Amino acid sequence: MDKITLRREMLARTAALSPEYIIESDLGIFENVVSLPEFISAGSVFMYYSFDKEPDTHGLVLRALEEGKTVALPRVLGNGKMEHLRIINPEDTSAGVFGIREPLEWAERVTPKKGDLIIVPAAAYGRDCSRLGRGGGYYDRFLHDTPAFTVGLSREKLLIDHAPEEPHDVRVMCIVTESGIIRR
Question: Model's pTM, two decimal places?
Answer without folding.
Answer: 0.93
